């Protein structure tokens, strides 16, 4: 039997089977996609996402729906920045809304006092100012952990909006700063159906570019260092990772994203008021992050969708039931809290964690 097997294993010389065969490509399109540089993959994905948003916004029936799509965009950016800080590095922040305040008021002051600055310049300046604020806060809180860090950042969320009341001559007091942005340029105005349509496209373009940066950073050395610090700070320090400096960098990137989200909010709404950036906003962003799923940028999308559309559903239910205004105003918040508790109890890793488990179960079949 052994000699028979050897004869079959060695084809005769000169036959077609004896010719060397070129290695077959494994994985096909998936392998080619994974062979691309990370930045190129993220840019292509962002381009596809922008095209999908453009189609969606074009076919939405009303400017109010287009407004909600734009709101999902800048909230997703704010939550994604918080994801890098909380989900990747393990630092707890209850003051992320303060960085949105910084970005919104930076954009408002530029628009009012330097109207010749283009929109791209306003957005870049908002990011720079937000990063400077992140350096100050990150350096001051680098040695704080757990509830001490949470308390420090909550104090920031409480105290910073009050600056608008303290310096009312510059920041407009309780009424804030207001400005009306122009819609689409005349060259492309025939391609959009409303001002909100154009603003939604601009905001999503801005958000997706920022998401490309975030996704690339989280897949690179910074992301690996942040995860190492989150898992075991002492072990990360013994491995040569500069823990304090890496934490400050995480704060800076997160603050830049929050500030850019605030600038996008000002661009969409045309107003920046201290009542828009209360501690409730910071807590909502953190709750949306947990609901969407910690440790994944996809969780930011699910969290932003939940904030915008669950609030809308709560308002419609309150209207259908004929509830009083005091009850109707609080119903979306209570409903969102109940949803958060249910999802965390059912899927501790949030919506994205549940989708991962579902995908793994489908692949095993």
Description of the molecule:
This protein is mostly helical and 365 residues long. Helix 3 packs antiparallel against helix 10, helix 6 packs antiparallel against helix 13 and helix 14 packs parallel to helix 16. The radius of gyration is 25 Å and the shape is globular. Strands 1-2 form a two-stranded antiparallel sheet. The N terminus is likely disordered. 74% of the residues lie in helices and 1% in strands.
Helix-strand blueprint:
Elements: H1 2-9, H2 29-35, H3 38-59, H4 63-88, H5 96-113, H6 119-141, H7 146-159, H8 163-166, H9 168-171, E1 177-178, H10 195-219, H11 221-231, H12 233-238, H13 243-269, E2 271-272, H14 279-292, H15 298-321, H16 325-346, H17 350-364
Antiparallel strand pairs: 1-2
GO molecular function: branched-chain amino acid transmembrane transporter activity
Subcellular location: Cell membrane
Region (Disordered): 1-26
Give a nutshell description of this structure.
It is a multi-pass membrane protein. Pfam families: BPD_transp_2. This protein is an all-alpha fold and 365 residues long.
Tell me roughly what share of residues is in helical segments: over 70%
β-sheet strand percentage: under 5%
Strand/helix succession: HHHHHHHHHEHHHHEHHHH
Terminal Cα span: 39 Å
How many DSSP helices?
17
- Tell me the Rg in angstroms: 25 Å
The chain-level structural class is mainly alpha
Give the quaternary arrangement of the chains. Answer: single chain
How much is the average pLDDT? Answer: 84
Instruction: Please outline the major beta sheet.
Output: 2 strands, antiparallel
Q: Give the overall shape, derived from the CA principal axes.
A: globular
Low-pLDDT segments: 1-18
Q: Numbering strands along the chain, what is their spatial order in the largest sheet?
A: 1-2
Question: How many strand units?
Answer: 2
Transmembrane segments: 39-60, 72-90, 97-114, 120-141, 148-167, 198-217, 285-310, 330-355
Subcellular location: Cell membrane
Membrane topology: Multi-pass membrane protein
Keywords: Cell membrane, Membrane, Transmembrane, Transmembrane helix
């Amino acid at each position: 039997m052994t000699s028979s097997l050897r004869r079959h294993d060695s084809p005769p010389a000169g036959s077609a089977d004896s010719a060397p065969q070129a290695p077959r490509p494994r994985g096909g399109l998936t392998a080619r996609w994974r062979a691309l540089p990370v930045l190129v993959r993220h840019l292509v994905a962002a381009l596809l996402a922008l095209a999908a948003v453009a189609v969606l916004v074009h076919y939405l029936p009303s400017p109010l729906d287009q407004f909600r799509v734009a709101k999902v965009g800048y909230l997703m950016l704010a939550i994604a920045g918080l994801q890098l800080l909380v989900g990747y590095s393990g630092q707890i922040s209850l003051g992320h809304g303060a960085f949105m305040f910084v970005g919104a008021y930076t954009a408002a002051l530029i628009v009012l006092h330097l109207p010749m600055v283009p929109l791209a310049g306003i957005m870049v300046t908002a990011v720079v100012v937000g990063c400077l604020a992140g350096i100050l806060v990150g350096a001051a809180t680098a040695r704080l952990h757990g509830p001490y860090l949470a308390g420090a950042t909550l104090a920031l969320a409480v105290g910073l909006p009050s600056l608008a009341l303290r310096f009312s001559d510059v920041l407009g007091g309780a009424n804030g700063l207001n400005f009306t942005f122009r819609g689409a340029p005349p060259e492309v105005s025939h391609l959009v159906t409303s001002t909100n349509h154009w603003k939604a496209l601009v905001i999503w373009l801005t958000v997706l570019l920022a998401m490309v940066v975030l996704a690339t950073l989280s897949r690179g050395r910074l992301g690996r260092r942040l995860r190492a610090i989150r898992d075991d700070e002492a072990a990360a320090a013994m491995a040569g990772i500069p823990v304090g400096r890496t934490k400050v960098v995480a704060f800076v990137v997160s603050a830049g994203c929050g500030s850019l989200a605030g600038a996008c909010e000002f661009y969409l709404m045309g107003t920046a008021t201290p009542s828009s950036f209360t501690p409730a906003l910071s807590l909502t962003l953190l709750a949306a992050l947990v609901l969407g799923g910690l440790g994944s940028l996809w969780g930011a999308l699910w969290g932003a969708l939940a904030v915008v559309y669950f609030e809308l559903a709560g308002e419609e239910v309150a209207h259908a039931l004929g509830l009083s205004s005091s009850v109707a105003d609080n119903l979306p918040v209570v409903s969102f809290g109940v949803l958060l508790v249910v999802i965390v109890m059912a899927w501790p890793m949030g919506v994205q964690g549940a989708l991962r488990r579902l995908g793994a179960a489908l692949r095993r079949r």
